[in-house]
Design goal:
Number of helices of chain B: 5
CATH superfamily of chain A: Cytochrome c oxidase, subunit III, four-helix bundle
Strand content of chain A: under 5%
Radius of gyration of chain B: 20 Å
Oligomer: heterodimer
Helix content of chain B: over 70%
Shape of chain A: globular
Low-confidence stretches of chain B: none
Largest interface: A-B, 68 and 62 residues
Order of helices and strands of chain B: HHHHH
Structural class of chain B: mainly alpha
CATH architecture of chain A: Up-down Bundle
Number of domains of chain A: 1
Distance between the termini of chain A: 65 Å
Structural class of chain A: mainly alpha
Low-confidence stretches of chain A: none
Number of helices of chain A: 10
Mean pLDDT of chain A: 86
Radius of gyration of chain A: 21 Å
């Protein structure tokens, strides 16, 4: 309806945008700039520890590296499908737009699942934070016996950095789900929360982290109830900016955290 | 939303309609190849400082491709490009002020 009220000589009436684009996009760029400082600080903290501690652990076997490489491929592919979704939205091809957004979400979900698997493996071998619940009958692997005690910075920076990124990817999947499916996504999100909560053991950090999905479902419901709207090409593009940023951050985490800590046998 | 915003959104969407999708596939392929090079380097038993330099160089190339093509910065006004990228690089570069301290810790107790 708003488009119908648009005067034809709008360019003559309104002052042109300073950045030549709409305010939603500028707003997202500002958010991303501030968020890049958050990740910048975490990456610098990790690098600081890596440089200053001579006995920095290198716990990533070839299995972990292969896993992280597949995760990287998932994120890169999701960026491609996201850019195709933006293109489809601009061409007003609704079917392709939803299809590519769902493909992006699938790649993002694949990334989170593989990352969760990696975390669970490291935790089961004894690498943990003091706030993590104790694992019953745990046999700590020899290489991790002293890591958590002698170099606590490794577990601290690793779990904070990768955990923060995993949270961003999870919220990105939720964001894209809302853009693609709108209200239909809420029951799916609640089902995912229930599965994630019930399928993880009580000593796993993911048992508690699953509640992020519940909070996200509540917040999304509130937003869609207060401001119901049909998401257009601009909304898809702005969501795409967020998604590519998450991909971009991983391009620094992957070499710094995984490749620089590869265990060469 | 006011009329000027709608007009700008329409113009930006119009620009996207004219972008070919072929470069995005090239960028995706290049990013995958660069990732493969990084993994290969991980097994080369290189000196950490040299390896870090190469890996960060490759990451910056990847970041440039993602920002330029996937995030469409290549198609934005030069004003937008300069303001966002300069402020980002400046703020991140300012954090490097802490690194000499990390090197100092390595030599503690030696002197």
């Amino acid at each position: 309806m708003a488009e119908a009220a648009l005067p034809r000589n709008v360019a003559e009436i309104y002052e042109p945008s300073l950045f030549g684009t709409y305010s939603k996009k500028v707003g997202m760029w500002l958010f991303l700039l501030s968020d890049s400082l958050t990740f910048g600080a975490l990456l610098y903290a990790y690098s600081y520890g890596r440089i200053s501690i001579s006995n920095w652990p290198t716990p990533f076997h070839s299995g972990s590296i292969v896993n992280a490489t597949i995760m990287t491929a998932f994120l890169l592919t999701s960026s491609l499908t996201m850019v195709l979704a933006v293109n489809a939205a601009a061409l007003k091809n609704e079917k392709r737009r939803v299809l590519f957004l769902l493909a992006t979400m699938a790649c993002g979900a694949g990334f989170v699942i593989l990352h969760g698997k990696e975390w669970s493996h490291l935790i089961s071998e004894g690498l943990r934070l003091p706030i993590f619940p104790a694992v019953p009958h745990q046999e700590v692997a020899s290489e991790f016996v002293n890591v958590s005690k002698t170099v606590p910075q490794f577990a601290g920076t690793f779990f904070t950095l990768t955990g923060m990124h995993m949270l961003h990817v999870t919220l990105g999947v939720v964001y894209l789900g809302v853009i693609a499916l709108r209200r239909k996504f809420i029951p799916i999100l609640l089902a995912l929360w229930l599965v994630a909560w019930l399928a993880t053991p009580a000593y796993s950090p993911f048992h508690y982290a699953a509640h992020v999905l519940l909070i996200a479902a509540l917040v999304c419901s509130l937003i869609m109830w207060l401001k119901p709207k049909i998401y257009d090409a601009a909304d898809v593009e702005v969501a795409g900016l967020y998604w590519h940023f998450v991909d971009l951050v991983w391009m620094f985490i992957f070499p710094l955290v995984y490749i620089m800590s590869t265990k060469i046998v | 939303m006011d009329a000027s915003q709608l007009a700008i959104e329409g113009r930006v969407a119009e620009q996207h309609r004219h972008h070919s999708i072929t470069p995005f596939f090239w960028v995706w392929g290049t990013l995958l190849v660069l990732t493969a090079i990084e993994v290969y380097l991980g097994y080369q038993n290189m000196e950490p400082k040299r390896m870090l330099t190469i890996l960060m160089g490759l990451s910056f190339v990847k970041a440039t491709l993602i920002i330029g093509y996937f995030m469409h910065m290549k198609y934005e006004l030069s004003r937008m490009k300069w303001i966002t990228m300069c402020s980002l690089v400046f703020c991140l570069a300012m954090m490097m002020v802490f690194f000499p301290d990390a090197f100092r810790i390595l030599s503690l107790g030696v002197r």
